[in-house]
Amino acid sequence: MEGVDYLRDERSKAQFDVETMKVAWAGSPEAFLVCDRMAKLVANDPVFEKFSKPMLGRKELFKNTLRKTAHAWKLVNDLHLTEEEAKWLRHYIDEPSYTDLQWEMFVPALEGQGTEEQKKKWVPLAKTMQIIGTYAQTELGHGSNVQGLETTATFDRQSDEFVIHSPTLTSSKWWPGGLAKVTTHAIVYARLIIDGHFYGVHGFIVQLRSLEDHSPLPGITLGDIGMKFGHGTYNTMDNGVARFDRVRIPRDQMLMRVSQVTKEGKYMKSNVPRQLGYATMVSVRQTIVSDASKALSRAVCIATRYSAIRRQFGSRDGGPETQVLDYKTQQSRLFPLVASAFAFRFASDWLKLLYTDVKQRLEVNDFSTLPEVHACTAGFKSLTTAATAEGIEECRKLCGGHGYLISSGLPELFAFYVPACTYEGENVVMLLQVARFLVKTVSDLGNKQPVGTAAYLGRASLLVQKNCVVQTAEDWLNPIAILEAFEARAARMAVGCCQRLAEFKSPEEGFAELSSDLAEASLAHCQVIVVSTFIRRLQQDIPGRGVKQALEVLCNVYALFLLHKHQGDFLATGYLTPKQASLANDQLRTLYSKVRPNAIALVDSFNHTDHYLSSVLGRYDGNVYPKLYEAALKDPLNDSDIADGIHQYVQPILKQKLHSSKL
Length: 663
Ligand SMILES: CCCCCCCC/C=C\C/C=C/C(=O)SCCNC(=O)CCNC(=O)[C@H](O)C(C)(C)COP(=O)(O)OP(=O)(O)OC[C@H]1O[C@@H](n2cnc3c(N)ncnc32)[C@H](O)[C@@H]1OP(=O)(O)O
Ligand SMILES: Cc1cc2nc3c(=O)[nH]c(=O)nc-3n(C[C@H](O)[C@H](O)[C@H](O)COP(=O)(O)OP(=O)(O)OC[C@H]3O[C@@H](n4cnc5c(N)ncnc54)[C@H](O)[C@@H]3O)c2cc1C
Description:
The strands form three sheets. Strands 1, 2, 3, 5, 6 and 9 form a six-stranded mixed sheet that branches. The chain has a three-stranded antiparallel sheet with strand order 4-8-7, with no helix packed on it. It has a two-stranded antiparallel sheet with strand order 10-11. It starts with a helix and ends in an 8-residue tail after the last helix. By secondary structure, it is α+β, with helices and mostly antiparallel strands. It has helices at 3-12, 18-26, 29-43, 58-78, 83-93, 98-113, 116-127, 279-309, 328-363, 370-398, 410-417, 427-443, 460-463, 479-501, 507-513, 515-538, 547-565, 567-572, 578-595, 599-604, 610-613, 624-633, 646-655; strands at 133-136, 152-156, 161-165, 173-174, 185-194, 197-207, 220-224, 240-244, 247-250, 259-261, 267-269. Helix 14 (479-501) packs antiparallel against helix 16 (515-538). 52% of the residues lie in helices and 9% in strands. Among the domains are: 107-271, Butyryl-CoA Dehydrogenase, subunit A, domain 2; 450-604, Up-down Bundle (Butyryl-CoA Dehydrogenase, subunit A, domain 3), CATH 1.20.140. The chain binds ligand LUC3G6IP and flavin-adenine dinucleotide (FAD). Flavin-adenine dinucleotide (FAD) is lined by residues 101, 134-138, 142-144, 175-177, 234, 239, 419, 422-426, 428-429, 432, 515.
């Protein structure tokens, strides 16, 4: 049999209806149709070809992306695509470009932090791409600590302008996407100074380049920050540096939803919290969670298909060898990642609802749920990006040696994905934000009953006393038992941290000293929410033959895999006995056997095109070896039998006459 037959055979074993699972993955029939149409539009358009990317130099990579982005914008207009469709189009084009910043950060920053008047002026210009903007917050010297930014915006009462200035080398804006060569405008974050007084960091709309000839405006120095990790992925993007030498902008270009500066130079605070200035980051963190499920689904799709084709050992009497997918070790590394992709998908659907809700509330100045939404977006961003980055690397290893080839699609996916652990809030820094929320919630238990995602902490006094009642491996299939185990572990970790915090001289000192434990407690809290979201999703109506059952298996795999991975926490906090932890692992092995016949169908449900996967190992048709061979032959080194440099550098060595002492 060939790879093609192996996958056909695997598909015939599926115990659920793949077409309905595709809809469950996409979120709704409508969402599925949009994704499917956009994926095919990109896959069938030769402009979006990407197999030649690994061979391009930096300048060509960048220009190639400009060309694709211009073509995409033409399609958006010619085909009258909606914003949602255009977002999927960008996603499937699969190349970081300045438009990510335009649509994911510049427009949301204008919409979220601008006044009605500002939005009316700037948003239509941005949405029609008459101006192209970026989000210029990070500096050479500070990224995580936003309040530590050094760029200044000094109000000049006489001219009714702000003077934007980079006073030090470390105040140079550093990293913003598109800044180096493309963007005409930026939201520049700077310390506001009026009459020598500092009023904190605010966002300012600054024009960077002439709209006539694209040259940088006077007083502005712009450049690229250099090549980044990997080859053809983030190097398509011109992440940039900007320095400002007393650049003047009109007063009405400070984003003034949160606070205003009057003509007279009076600083006025609205009744909105200053954290609203961070709202764009909350919006993007939410998008990043959804992106994690996509990136992980892509990696597991490649690794699962290839694992069904790859055979090693186990041949008897000249018969076929064992598919590596049948090895329990392969399953125990791969299936939890398949389950995680689904878990993150449902978590991101839920987070989107939570975010939509807070957005509506913020519009009518209801800020009550902002702390919880901030904690959820920050925590989920950290949890999902860390697990996805690790998961992609695991998938590379699951594909053995071939996983290291660029043609497997995995090295470039990894290089593209890993910065997600850093940008939009470094992951540990984000967990510490969750920790602040947890400590506040636990410390306030006597006065205030927690709600929403923290509601379980209202039962903390009970959860720290109760013990797990599981007696058999089957008991671990009960969602109530699973959820209580996660809640008890998280509550015990959070309460334990709070008790130890009280032993320090000051809360700040305690927080700093216990920050590792607090980050672990935060992760445990986020896992409660992801697991409970998966469980709740299964309580909804899920149509289609066997779809719900297949998802139930994955939900249990996800939860019990986490329980097994973090069994140290579950045991140390005393909720579980070693016997119960071992029963969970027994159940996990059984569950892997239930995933096995559905493995290929599950990854088919992601509906990824071969173009999107850009992987010879993950091809839908399974024709791996001939195509791997074909891809290798296309390498420029194979253009001739005698490569450049052989005559010059190798032959002289071969032909040298050695002295007998060196023989
Ligand atoms: C097609 C798909 C495309 C997908 C996505 C495209 C992305 C493109 C790729 C890359 C682009 C990347 C862009 C960037 O990276 S932009 C830069 C991002 N930078 C950061 O994320 C900086 C992280 N730092 C911070 O957010 C803050 O400095 C901080 C939260 C770490 C600390 O804030 P600070 O004000 O200094 O102090 P406190 O810790 O004291 O906080 C005060 C108070 O405010 C609460 N809070 C903090 N942040 C928020 C928030 N966002 N919303 C609501 N509330 C917030 C915090 O919890 C404290 O509350 P308290 O405990 O009650 O006092
Ligand atoms: C590909 C990419 C694209 C980007 N795009 C943009 C963009 O468009 N616009 C923009 O403004 N920025 C952008 N950034 C910058 C990005 O937002 C920052 O790099 C990020 O916020 C992390 O900040 P940092 O680099 O200062 O890291 P640091 O904060 O210096 O982190 C270094 C280490 O210190 C630790 N650390 C920091 N603070 C604490 C603390 N309080 N407690 C414990 N540990 C701590 C971190 O955990 C980390 O291990 C981008 C970055 C990348 C990689």
